[in-house]
């Protein structure tokens, strides 16, 4: 009987993991509008293109709860210095992709954390103001 319960529990936790893996965060209409208003025409083209083609995109925020300054990244970024955002990210939303791997060092080095969908406070996973590069998966 005990073994059966354990098996059921293992199954339940596996299914919830699978459900999480399919989770993709979405931008609200308001968020999308506010982001679009602040982009140059070149950035706007890339942003709309990513949305329409369902390309992996992430929005990196300086503060927790998706606050303050942000950067939009499309595709992997090997050095957050290039976008003026090194050791700065405190919350993140991943759009059109399952998740991202955040690395402590540039060029996808050092220790890392996986974010599925979104994380409103990187303190929760011990990675506040720490990320220096990022890969999509
Ligand atoms: Ca920060």
UniProtKB/TrEMBL annotation:
Keywords assigned by UniProt, alphabetized: Repeat, Signal
Signal peptide (UniProt feature, chain positions): 1-18
InterPro entries reported for this sequence: Beta/gamma_crystallin (IPR001064), G_crystallin-like (IPR011024)
UniProt cross-references to Gene3D superfamilies, sorted A to Z: Crystallins
Beta/gamma crystallin 'Greek key' domain span: 57-137
Family to which the UniProt record says this protein belongs: Belongs to the beta/gamma-crystallin family.
Protein's UniProt name: Beta/gamma crystallin 'Greek key' domain-containing protein
Source species of the chain: Pseudoalteromonas obscura
């Amino acid at each position: 009987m005990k073994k059966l319960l354990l098996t059921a529990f293992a199954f339940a936790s596996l299914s919830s993991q699978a459900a999480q893996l399919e989770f993709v965060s979405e931008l609200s209409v308001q968020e999308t509008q506010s982001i679009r208003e602040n982009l140059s025409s070149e950035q706007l083209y890339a942003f709309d293109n990513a949305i329409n083609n369902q390309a992996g995109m992430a929005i990196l925020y300086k503060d927790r709860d998706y606050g303050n300054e942000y950067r939009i990244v499309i595709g992997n970024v090997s050095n957050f210095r290039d976008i003026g955002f090194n050791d700065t990210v405190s919350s993140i939303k991943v759009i059109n992709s399952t998740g991202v791997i955040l690395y402590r060092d540039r060029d996808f080095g050092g220790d890392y954390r996986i974010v599925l969908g979104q994380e409103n406070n990187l303190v929760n996973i011990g990675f506040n103001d720490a990320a220096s590069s990022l890969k999509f998966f």
